[in-house]
Amino acid sequence: MATAYHNLSDYDFNSVPNAEDMKFGIVVSEWNYNITGALLKGALATLKKHGAKDENIIVKTVPGSFELTFGANQLIEYTEVDAVIALGCVVRGDTPHFDYVCMGATQGIAQLNASGDVPVIYGLITTNTMEQAEERAGGRLGNKGDECAICAIKMVDFAWSLQK
Question: What is the pTM of this model?
Answer without folding.
Answer: 0.94
